[in-house]
Amino acid sequence: MEILMNHGTILIMVAAAFGFLMAIGIGANDVANAMGTSVGSKALTIKQAIIVAMIFEFAGAYLAGGEVTDTIRKGVIDTSLYADQPLELVFGMMSALLAAGTWLLLASYMAGQSPPPIR
Question: Which of 3, 38, 59, 98 could form a disulfide with 44 if both were Cys (CB 3.0 to 4.6 A apart)?
Answer without folding.
Answer: 38
